[in-house]
Design goal:
Number of strands: 8
Largest sheet: 4 strands, antiparallel
Strand content: 5-15%
Distance between the termini: 52 Å
Order of helices and strands: HHEEEEHHEEHHHHEE
Length: about 325
């Protein structure tokens, strides 16, 4: 018989794969969302730190330029800062609010973007304030960089979850599904009652697959013993049937079996000789016809049948058969 194939939603391997991938997808979404938020926060902080580091790097130069009121120097420094893609505009102001230098996009110095302000102290007197450095961040660029880094991190997390799910699926298929399929195929190919047994691979000897194989072998052993016992009993019954059939057929006493309704079920050749009818003719008699056809007083036979059934014991009597010719014939009958 051809081995059935597991298809569709009945496949344990398919259901496991779907469960793993759904779980991995949920974990990937959660991990990606967390990674995106964390990556964006870190990227924004990193961009702001980079701009602050640039401001610190040029702070001494700006202090000297502001102290010397050197507009050319201040403008060069402002232009250099404005070239950074994270900075939208740079403004250097004097303490009285005058603009000493300005660089960047039109109107960006006065509106839009996050503002980073640092005071400019005198290079010779820390207590004297000369002005301030005001840097307007390019928020669009900063946000784009943060989004890119966040998306990259989120994609990496999602890819890692998907890869882990694939590895789990392949491992489960290799360690669980394939051994079970091979075990089922081997069981199907075995002959019932044979001495064949499943072999336990060394790498499965101590795990659940090994326990399953051991249980299957125990069942095969029990089945073999049961079949051997059944065959032995069948042989004994057949031998006894042959002995009883020989006794039944060769007995000098007429032996017959009637149904509850009085129809002849079986009888030995002696019955046929005594009655004078063939077994085919006797079996062709209808219900209760056998008793009326064979015995001179069938009501006595029916009475004996009822008495034997009621008492659960054998009832015997001498009964006269239907007369054939002038001679009367009697038999001793046990029911």
């Amino acid at each position: 018989m051809k081995a059935p194939r597991v298809r569709g939603g009945n496949s344990l391997q398919l259901r496991f794969m779907l469960l793993v991938f759904v779980s991995a997808a949920l974990l990937a979404v959660i991990a990606a969302a967390g990674a995106y938020g964390l990556g964006q926060t870190r990227a924004l902080a990193r961009s702001r730190s980079s701009v602050e580091a640039l401001a610190v790097a040029v702070e001494k130069t700006l202090q000297i330029g502001a102290f010397a009121n050197d507009a050319v120097l201040l403008q060069e420094v402002a232009n250099g800062l404005a070239r950074n893609e994270l900075i939208a505009a740079v403004t250097v102001q004097a303490a009285d609010g005058r603009v000493l230098a300005q660089a960047g996009s039109d109107g960006a110095a006065v509106a839009g973007g996050s503002l980073l302000a640092r005071p400019l102290q005198s290079p010779f007197d820390a207590g004297e304030r000369l002005g301030s450095l005001r840097i307007r961040l390019n928020d669009a660029r900063v946000q784009a960089d943060a989004d890119h880094q966040a998306y990259t991190l989120a994609a990496a997390m999602a890819g890692q979850a998907a890869l882990l799910a694939l590895v789990l699926y392949l491992v489960a298929a290799r360690l669980v599904s394939l051994p079970i399929v091979h075990l089922a195929r081997a069981l199907r190919e075995m002959q019932p009652g044979s001495g064949e047994r499943l072999l336990t691979p060394a790498n499965y000897a101590g795990d659940e697959i090994g326990v399953l194989i051991s249980g299957a072998n125990a069942l095969l052993e029990s089945n073999q013993r049961a079949l051997q016992t059944e065959r032995q009993l069948r042989a004994e019954v057949e031998a006894m049937e042959a002995q009883y059939r020989q006794i039944f057929d060769s007995s000098s006493a007429g032996i017959f079996v009637l149904s509850q309704a009085g129809r002849l079920i079986n009888g030995n050749p002696t019955v046929s000789r005594v009655v004078g009818l063939s077994m085919a003719e006797l079996r062709g008699l209808g219900e209760d016809e056998f008793v009326g056809r064979v015995f001179h007083r069938p009501e006595l036979v029916r009475q004996m049948i009822d008495e034997a059934a009621a008492r659960g014991e054998t009832v015997s009597a001498d009964l006269e058969l239907v007369q054939q010719g002038e001679a009367r014939r009697w038999v001793h009958c046990l029911i």
